[in-house]
Structure formats: structure tokens, C-alpha cells
Amino acid sequence: MNTLKTEQHDGIKSIEQVLRDAYDAGLRAIPYGRVADYIPELAKADPNAFGICMIDGDGRTCSIGDAGTRFSVQSVSKVIILAAALKFRGFDGTFSHVMMEPSGDSFNSILKLDTRSNLPFNPMINAGAIQTVSLLVDHISFEELLDYARLLCRDGGITLDEKVYRSEAETGDRNRAIVYLLKSKGVLQGDPERTLELYFKMCSLAVNAKSLAALGLIISNGGVDPIEGARLIGADNVRTIKSLMFTCGMYDYSGEFGVRVGVPSKSGVGGGLVCSAHGPLGFGFYGPALDPYGNSIAAVKAMEHISKELGLHVFNY
């Protein structure tokens, strides 16, 4: 399915062509990637699936390919988790328990946590996201976080994928090691098993590329839903979130992605990618074939093309 679909597409013909070309560039990259297989449910994804969605500040939407396919949000949920922590625990209440530094290690590494710091380096890696969830577990329910995710993604259809959740819970030994390492250091802020349960559930939300494009748009618009007019994230919190997305959102590829693409972004091993560009513009991608860092190989290639063609790099002049 490779027909470009548009809604209220007047005035964005040139963007349509850019998205077509980006889609084609992404398709060419797919054979060089592979789906995640350390979570059994993720290994079932079609490696050739690929979709792009873009939404602008007027709600005009362009989508191509598998943009409506539901998939597991995985680490993209770390953006939602951080937004919730900043909303309910505040800046100091969050960052007194997790740092704001790029790690330079893989997303599930425990190396620096065990050798250099008692606190995780940032909320965009597994250790940092688990620590951030521990700040919430005694203060907010999964159902409340789910409702918040639906608002941020403008998608009332987001649900918990029970199969992915069970697969995560049964095979998440590395994350279980992380939560108990944090507990052993005396820094974990909640019960380890309840923290893990909430973390696994947040990673198992079923979203699509359009959901992620809406999330990117709201972040790009300073935390305000431009269609409904509701403020969903405080302006100061948006600045924090975008900064961490830019410096830490693409795992240990974040630096090169920052140079090549230059847009605050967050990826997930389920194949999702959310990008928040000035405009405001939100981009969402689905492509489960991953590069060696755990990012969608097609989405990264497509967003690099889009950023270059539309001049979206934050350091353009």
C-alpha cells in the first residue's frame, strides 16, 4: 500500500512530493535492517512494512504506506512518561532522581549505571525511563497514564496490546536487572515489581504513525493541541522534553542523527519514530526493520530526506 493519502491537503503539494520521495528512500533502506527479536511478539512484525504521517498546525494530514497500522510504541513511550513525570512531579522532583546527560551506550545498557553513577544518565534510555516510572507508580494509575497518552497522541483508539505486554513481562530480564540494580543502590522510588509492570505496559501501547505525528505536533506547538486548543504539556516542560529528545532520543545514534537530521525525535524498537519539527509540524513513522542501534532504518533515512528538503534542521540559518 503505497498511495499517498491526504486530508485537507490544499497548499501542501510540495510536501506531498517530499514525503513520496522520502517514502521511496525509506523502502530502499529496509533490506539493510532487521526486526527486533529479543521480544518474541516484536519478531512477528512484517519487516517490509513502512508508513509515514505528517500533521501541520492546521490539522492538515499527509500519510503514505502503512501509517494506519497499529504497532507497539516501545521506547517512544518514554516521551509520554517524561511528560507525565514533569507534569505530576515537577522538574526538580524528576531530575533529582535521573540525570540529563547522553549516555553513548545502547538503550538497555547498565554499564555506566553500575560503574559511573547511581542515577541513570537520562530518561530516554531504559534505566532512566524505569527510574522515571518509579516516580509515578505510587501517584498515578496505568489507566490515567493511558488517558494522557491518548490526549497527547490525539488517538482515543490507543489500547494496551496484551500479547506484547505478556511477551515483555516474560522476557524482560535485562529490565528486571536494571530495576533491582536501582533498588540495590537505594535510588529507586517505587516498588520494583509494580514499577516494572507499569513500565512494560507503557511500552506495550498500540499506536500508529498518525498517533506519533500528533504527539510530535503537540510538542512542536509548545505543548498545546493546535486543533483543540488545550494545553497538555507546560511550556517549560516542552523545552526540557525537546532538549532530551534531541540529545538522547535516538539511542547511541543520537549525535549523528542530530547532525544529519537536526530535529527532536524519539525512536522505539517496535519500529516507531516521532519527530517534532518547527512549523509546527509533527512526523510519525512505522518501520519495524531496525538499524544496529535499534532505530527504524527506513524512518531514519526518510526523515533525513525530509529534513534536508524542507529545511527543518534546528541549526539551519
Structure in words:
This protein is of the alpha+beta class and 317 residues long. It folds into two domains: 5-74 and 205-310, DD-peptidase/beta-lactamase superfamily (Beta-lactamase, 3-Layer(aba) Sandwich); 77-203, Beta-lactamase. The protein is 45% helix and 11% strand. It contains twelve helices and nine strands. The chain has helices at 13-29, 77-95, 111-115, 126-136, 142-152, 162-171, 173-184, 192-203, 209-220, 235-248, 254-260, 297-310, and strands at residues 5-7, 51-56, 61-65, 71-72, 159-160, 205-207, 265-267, 272-277, 281-286. The chain has a six-stranded antiparallel β-sheet. It has a three-stranded antiparallel β-sheet with strand order 4-6-5. Strand 7 (265-267) and strand 8 (272-277) form a beta hairpin. Mean pLDDT is 93; it is low at 7-13.
CATH-derived topology of the largest domain: Beta-lactamase
Average of per-residue pLDDT values: 93
Going across the major beta sheet, what is the strand order? 1-3-2-9-8-7
* CATH homologous superfamily title of the largest domain: DD-peptidase/beta-lactamase superfamily
CATH architecture of the largest domain: 3-Layer(aba) Sandwich
Q: Any idea what the radius of gyration is?
A: 18 Å
Distance between the termini: 37 Å
* Basic shape: globular
| Order of H and E elements | EHEEEHHHHEHHHEHHHEEEH
- Low-pLDDT stretches: 7-13
Structural class: alpha+beta
The CATH class name of the largest domain reads Alpha Beta
